[in-house]
Fold ROK family protein.
Amino acid sequence: MIRTRSSSEIRDASRREVVRALVVGGTATRTELARTTGLSAATVSNLVTELREAGLIADAGIDNAGSGRPTTMLRIDGRGGSFLGIDVAETYIRAVVFDAAITEIGAADVDVDEEWQSIDRIAEALLSAVAQAIDRGGRPAGELLGAGLGLPGLVSNDLRGGASTPGWAAHIRELEERVRPHLPAPLVTANPLQAVGHSEIWFGAARGRSTAVVVNLGTGVGAGIIVEGRVLRGATRSAGEWGHTVLELDGRICRCGRQGCVEAYVGVPGIRHTLGEVDPGHPLLQLHQREFVQGLRDAVADPAVAETLALTARYLGIALSDIVAVLNPEVLTLTGWTAWALGDDLLPAVRAALAERAPELTAARLDLGVSPVRINSVATGMAVLSFEYYLDSRALARRTRPRTDPIPALPVIAPAASPTAPQAVAG
Amino acid sequence: MIRTRSSSEIRDASRREVVRALVVGGTATRTELARTTGLSAATVSNLVTELREAGLIADAGIDNAGSGRPTTMLRIDGRGGSFLGIDVAETYIRAVVFDAAITEIGAADVDVDEEWQSIDRIAEALLSAVAQAIDRGGRPAGELLGAGLGLPGLVSNDLRGGASTPGWAAHIRELEERVRPHLPAPLVTANPLQAVGHSEIWFGAARGRSTAVVVNLGTGVGAGIIVEGRVLRGATRSAGEWGHTVLELDGRICRCGRQGCVEAYVGVPGIRHTLGEVDPGHPLLQLHQREFVQGLRDAVADPAVAETLALTARYLGIALSDIVAVLNPEVLTLTGWTAWALGDDLLPAVRAALAERAPELTAARLDLGVSPVRINSVATGMAVLSFEYYLDSRALARRTRPRTDPIPALPVIAPAASPTAPQAVAG
Ligand SMILES: [Zn+2]
Ligand SMILES: [Zn+2]
């Protein structure tokens, strides 16, 4: 059963390809779409007709450039609907509304450093961010066709204790169930690593590739794994927890409670730890998180910083070689603030460690670099995932009938129980 | 392109499902096949017709047991063809001929400890094993419909130097090209880890599962990775080299030349190393390979052996937790002689280490055990892979026309250059 795909699943996959080709490419003729997607001209034509009826594809003028007769250029109709991507991170929740062309039309952040003591508080913060983003987008909430929620997986700043606390996964599930009824569109969820994987498939280094790995480097680290062009979710939807694989048996204590995890060496606190070992009195140790990373970047000539970066690159290269050995991907792309800030400084030594450590050929043939997707990668990934979900046959079939049901208003959330709760949600 | 599958690919996948259901289940009615495979009755009926014409399916009597009208039971016709699986291991080459029901009909081993100094010698040994296996199978070589060659990947006993030698992969490719023209059927290749993955999909713990990992524990260790029911090959066909991921930064020297690899702790030489640390004068250190593993098994009550097994189980559990964290599989199955001999002794402590180390839920939901496939797992995996390859539309379409081309004889190999070469190939 796992190997056979029904014709409606194939049609779903083909439809996603056509939409993705137009979202990414901007405009295309039917012939160009067939070439880009590898689908037959007849299939493309049928899908275009269906998507036009659903209001998602519009004409974009006539192409006279070719030698043949003029053909109609197509584009995504941004007004055809909107999609919401929500990034529940450790210190903030970001909601971003995109139009159907995946152009950002409204975004809002709410800080949640203190709110993690209570699922209620987090749910309020989340719905507040959503309401603000929808408001800024200027479209009625009822135009939302889908919402995607990126939820932290193993490690988080978390109901005090995180993944090592039994029941953390249940808390996350509870948050999901708490907010679901209050969102004005069907909800899909994934962990942030998987979300970033979706961004890379649509817009980044994994486009058109079969096997790819997207490694996120920030406070936490992890990997979005793409096999046969799809993001691997795993049996309990936590695939990609490369950050908590072992780099050093009985090594540094990781904030997940285990010892020797990759994250304890190449997560931002891990890099601080390394600098502290190199020079315990270094002034950059006063800084944390992004400020610390920025500080490293501004001081690469400082010998202690240079040594720290060399050690970090070695740790990272060895840890990446593990994922390369296991998955042998075509592409490995680095993302997250550490990658964006320090990628150029780290990459040569990372490459050297990979070449030394990964199995023969796997490193030589690997396309390694820093991701071109640098803004809202989790929110974008969740929005495109919700778009894919929407595009499945049944949701779209409902859409092609004229919409007669009243557009639901965004529900008013009960007033916050705590005076320090984030701003009240717009009604 | 990677996401869309053509209708002929779907038909290929469906055909594989029907054949596999009959190979594994023995007999079934069309209705039962539809239920087992999830295919429509019409699809099953079409495929059965096609496979009967190709001589691969025969009637197996009438089923009167049901309440409805009697229906025809079907089975694979073992005489419909044969398939060859070849296991190129470090100390031997084994060739096994299976009939179309994947029943072994002939097998032969040739030792190759000394032959690894020359590709010519290995090629001779390989073709000698093949000729003997075909001869013992008692079917003309021309009845072979496919051959599968499992070739060592990263580490081997190797043209002196193995994977750390640049060009090892080229040597393996050279061996493949050397023997290909002399085999009497189309050849597919994979590494042994991937071969074992195919065995598990057909006959083992991965049957009907989406994501599964088969971990091979012997002299070398590695993993066959199954995602969405298919074996992951990787960009340079070396996915699964988990044995050379890092367990301890700057740890034990591995025979691949790197430091701290998983294999250096849980491969057989690694377990010997651990026993040597526990008790440098232990008598079991006189033994090697299978004899050493058997010796451990026979002496589990010995305190030094017990401590060695406890340490090994901990190393193994931590190393497995890495693959569980990254892939979050439904199933993890252990195979290879260490697993068969020591699995029952190791599993409780491995489970404990996994529960402690792997991300929440991933270990709790994991189906962990020792593989039920215990004989010829590489050769069987390569034979079923060659069967799958044969079943693809074009090969089968050629078959449904009556065969009129003369059956090619197995070629005579040029006499061995060295007097110690294996026995000459049967003409
Ligand atoms: Zn950790
Ligand atoms: Zn190694």
User: Anything to note?
Assistant: Chain B touches chain A through 69 residues (CB under 8 Å). Chain B has three domains: 7-76, 82-195+377-398, 206-370.
